[in-house]
User: Fold these one by one.
Assistant:
Number 1:
Amino acid sequence: MASAAEQLAANFNFGSISKAKELRSRIFFTLGALIVARLGSYIPMPGIDPAALALQMQQTGGGMLDIFNTLSGGAVGRMAVFALGIMPYISASIIIQLMTTVFPELEALKKEGEAGRKIINQYTRYFTVALAMIQAYGIALGLEHLGGQSHIVIHPGFFFRIGAVITLTGGTMLLMWIGEQITSRGVGNGISLIIFSGIVARFPTLLGQTLEQARTGATNPLLIIFFAVFTAALVGFIVFMERAQRRLFVTYPKRQVGNKVYGGDSSHLPLKLNVSGVIPPIFASSILLLPTTVASFNAQNLPEWLQLVVTYLSRGQPLYLFLYAALILFFAFFYTSIVFNPEETAENLKKYGGVFPGIRPGKKSAQFIDYTLTRITVIGALYLAFVCLIPEFMFYKYNLSFSLGGTSILIVVSVTMDTVAQIQSHLVAQQYEGLLKKSKLRGARR
């Protein structure tokens, strides 16, 4: 039997896409929405001196600002209207997910289906506005105190702060709306595609810097070729691990209703190897780089011991790599425990008559799922740590400009796989519709 990847490659072609009118319109809508999102990252926020901002970004490079700048497609470096990006929405979504495990009211809404999901989404939007306003006000205060003699803010004060809050919060909400429109009317997950487009938009600049290093002799061309092969191998490894699953065999006993017999089938409960996705690396790097980023704003006035700590926590240092790996492992288990509930899954299986062979339904099944999930999460967490640490170590050891990092590569590969899979599902649906139309025409002729 052909694998899922082989079936995807066999059915995915541009000829079939050209015949699917609805899919074609969805793709064009997605591309148009992403272009609008990219244009917003080039519109500067009012009241900012671009030259002073560029100088300050060079001095504070390599910290948390670099991560946010990568995820926003360079909008932070330009302090554009989309400088906050979609991160407040992602943070709000994660916090709401945490709250559903704490507050019974939210947990009850989660179980209500589509109606409850709409209410939770509305709460997430309100919380996104609050987070964006707080972050925007913090950015405005920070910009007023940055730059030394060359002030980044042309006219600091109350009106600049209010304008910054309105501009940045409005930009985040517009990005959130664009992402929701892509999800409902386009192809793929809109929020993920916005982050994906921001990362991919920096490819030409980073590639140009790398080739310039090779031309000037700052970097050995053979080293660049080696990194290109290494990156391709890493992408293949990520694809393999993201598709990896642990399938739990489930059987459904036969039951008789009247003269008919139902059930007697078997299926699988798939458990992804990496349930937490790219959230652990993003959280780990943000927390770890926060002290060094804040310290870089006032590096000259820091005590000697604090400067030493900042040096040891800088990217590429052994202490940074160790803590980075530890935080990735912690958040992988923590976030998996939030997004996957073994007791709820076991209860749903029991409701529909599904059982694991040799295991009692209910509590025993939940324990079996939890035990299996814990074991595969260990492998998934180690995989995330490996993918994120190896590029960090190699790129900073050899001082190569094309240093996207494991988190960016993970996001690009995961979003690409998800989008292509959704395109494939649309193509399969179109094929079924075509077969149904042909069968109806044959029936009408007869």
Number 2:
Amino acid sequence: MSRFDDYAIRYPSIRMRREDGVLEAVLHTNGGPLQWGLGPHAELPDAFHDIAADRDNRVVILSGAGDEFSGPRVVPTAGHPLFPTRPTAQFTENLISEGRRMLTNLMNIEVPVISAVNGPAWRHSEIPLLADIVIASETAAFQDSAHFPGGLVPGDGVHVVYPMLLGANRARYFLLTGQIITAAEALRLGLVGEVVPKERVLSRAWEHARAIARRPEVLVRHTRAVLAEPIRRRLQTDLGYGLYNECLALMDRPSAD
């Protein structure tokens, strides 16, 4: 079992606080919007594991700092801006391990997760959408900018989450074109449950969290279990396949030597 005091300040990319059993985890880089990279990619799997192993967490709120949930946005290019040269086998194996554990450990959290999407999620936008309740600010948007538009196979979980939420044809269009889905469109498509003014998004998440935390613990935990299980099964079946294909395509890069 994890203890909050042991992991609360362990992760530089995640600012945590807990009140009345509600854990708030805010993704950030130096206090501003999260700048996705190898650091957060390594931290989130372990952070989700620690959160999941702490039985004192009754509800989890996941949000971002500043004007974006996650960035920076990758501009479409015919080149390979993220991995210009061929990575080593050890590097790609590590990416696969972290990518698998990141979403698996998120879904292994045994209490409801609420996303307060404070702004655009340009990178790994599947993470906030895997929450049980998704609240978006009016400035939020969702894009998979770093995969196909950025020269990578969309295998980090977006290939599972978006077809599940949008349907196969909408999702394939979204992933191949780098489409941006605004908050209003996300609400219409059912990606999010509410759209609120930016200054209200986190407080609204806390309203839901406090209401859930007041319910009996066994009721809350086992409601999360039945709602999350179908998603866990889809990830178990297809996440590894996507990650291996993504890393295989990285071999089609010039050698760094």
Number 3:
Amino acid sequence: MRIKNDRLTNCWDSLGRDEMRDLQGRRLHSFLTNHVVPFSEYYRKRFAEAEVDPHSIDSLEDLARLPFSSKRTLISEVDGTPLTRDFILVPDEKVLSKRPSTVLKAITRGRARVKSDFEKEYRPILMTSTTGRSAEPVPFLYSQYDLDNLEMTGRRLMEVCDSRKDFKHFNLFPFAPHLAFWQAHYAGLGYNTFTLSTGGGKVMGTDGNVRLLGKIKPNALIGMPTFIYHVLQVAVEEGHEVPDIRRIVLGGEKVPDGLRRKLKALCANLGSGNVEVMATYGFTEAKMAWPECPAGDLDEPTGYHLYPDLGIVEVVDPETGKVVGDGEPGEIVFTPLDSRGSVVLRYRTGDLISGGLVYEPCPGCGRVVPRLVGRISRVSDIRRLNIGKVKGTLVNFNELEHVLDDLDAVGTWQIELRKRNDDPLECDEIVVHVAPSRRGERDKLIESINRRFAAATEIHPNRIEFHDAEDLRRRHGVGKALKEEKVVDHRELKAAPDMTTATTTIKS
């Protein structure tokens, strides 16, 4: 039986912590007993194997009794068959027909209406997929019920980002079966506002996006950080005037403080002042994205505002899996509370949040919701390199990205890992490709990059190569790649003569 008290959804951004957690516990109980365990083949087996009665799960503390899942879980196989299908909720008509709510609905509305409602709730009609940059792509299915939730989260995203109904929004995410595009698309529908989806660079190229930017003069840009930077950069180079940009909402990549400054500076050159640059955080398995609100005069971004009625976010110690305290760093773990289609519980994202999970009112907008604060980085972005005579040097590319983005003299950049002389038995090399943001001062820029590299990693790049902006756009794969290639690893590929044209990308 569904929870009749919908206070959690009606007051999603204003409940006190204790009441919110209590309502989340009740919704978790209902979700597991009415939807997940009865209709998910994977979790039906897992709960039975672990001898866990889903009816005994009724609080957030009980989450610790549930198994973790991860990308590896989703791509695992049994007898050569992927387990992906086992995570899809497939309703059992016998179970549904015995529920009092079903019987009552059939009496009052008729069997045809009951069947139609269940089809809208459970039948998969949309598929998105992970990008496949760090593992095999994983499909995730949505029912109409999920799309209604996607529209609701899109509306909330617009509200938290302080958009306006009369704004003209540009959705510059590429047309693709990925969450980012669809979340932005449904945000426009849910908020009932003008939203033009350009398809990113693959459909009309950078030039086509720049022409539309100059012609329609939007108020808000939504898209990948690197691509939006390139579009604004070209618009400045071509002398366009775009005076009405007020919001830039970014997703799909990390957004260092330096990049925010550079985007604001480009907007100022186009004639737009007082631009708020906000990041979002989302992933395929969550089926939603969470936004920052405008930081205004605050020194730091406000953190990602979560939707407690739709999911539970935990922050755990990546080594032990134990939940850490408020405001402590750790790995982000997600459990949905109201999903259909593909469902995973306690999903370990592999994303580390530096400032943890906090519950106090947001200093920017005043909303009382859990927030993830600080920098988000990937565990997989720590790479072991053989640099010179030092074997196995650990290099954290999360820090390197911030080093380069926070240098105002660096416009765009790419880090390339390769073998010295393309010899597989030689040492590793780090080559930094840079397009300066202004002319001259190359010697000072080389010195700054070397100094900040050494401070972050105790190593220096082997070479720093300078390029114009157009060359960096080609290196990034702007208009071709789904995510621009900021860090590329050519080490293994250079060792294989028949693969010299391929590129392996480290997820950034």
Number 4:
Amino acid sequence: MPDTDTVIQNTKPAELVDHNLVPEAETIVAGILYEKRPAKRLDGSVAEGLYNAWITLDNPSQYNAYTTEMVKGAVLAFRRASVDREVSAVVFTGAGDKAFCTGGNTKEYAEYYAGNPQEYRQYMRLFNDMVSSILACDKPVVCRVNGMRIGGGQEVGMACDFSVAQDLANFGQAGPKHGSAAIGGSTDFLPVMIGCEQAMVSATLCEPFSAHKAYRLGIVSGIVPALKVDGTFVANPAVVTDRMFDDFGRIVHGEFKTGDEFQAGREMIRAGEIDLGLLDDAVERLCAKLLETFPECMTKSLEELRKPKLDSWNRNKENSRAWLALNMMNEARAGFRAFNEGNREIGREIDFVKLRQALAQGTPWTPELVESLMPGIGDD
């Protein structure tokens, strides 16, 4: 019997058709890294001629927040990976060890899009295309959660098929705390993935939760330690990692510790070393499992299993886009400015009580009202 190499050489077309939308060189933009890494079998050996495509958000100084140009680059990168015959799986991650992604670039939002709903509407078309390009990718997409996955970062992360996280990462939404609503995917995906009640908690209260809680809720498929103390990996010391209940029978596994215990955990993190080696090993192993399957059966399985997320996303994304654009005239205009102009000392949120008091009196949205709500205004 002929070997596989002989069959391939005797039967493949002389010239393969290029299905990319643009030349490959044009898919590379500032802030997006695209790399093909050799795919490996489960035994660790390299599968010659096969690769995993790594798409990396490369803006670590702003916690990998995506700019308009980065969104364009991500759309093209996922399209490129989807049609690449040599690519088995896609790994979507961020640069560094602090953040996968914290969402849209608030500086760009505050300084360009705030007050310009017609412009933000066009930006949201690009954002929607980014989410859709993940959900439409013909290859399985693994979110390598190397750090914080917050806001829009949570939304693009949940669009992926799998998530593997280092256990110092935090997850959550920022919408109603910063002048928006989590309708770029989270209100579509969260109820499907973690249930309506927990989705309500996350998308309205905007309280960050740990990777351990994310694993317990089912929003990630695996977590690994990243903190090394004296050369040994240890679980996140600021989180309750034992499967424990409190005196009222409530689950505390995965919740942040409180008081002195939390502070002691944070001190241990600061004194230790961050090593993402176990995260990379876990991602490689998952990709190896995906490699050793029938490719068309895999793609069909992905298409079917994505339907619950897609059904909600496709039903709502255009209405959400329109609302988000109009919201740039009032609450988003105030919220993004507050985050952009604030700092740790004065805070990055508006005075919510003052706003509600003003609206209760029928005060219209004016530049003066927005100015009066900024962090630090009226402080002694």
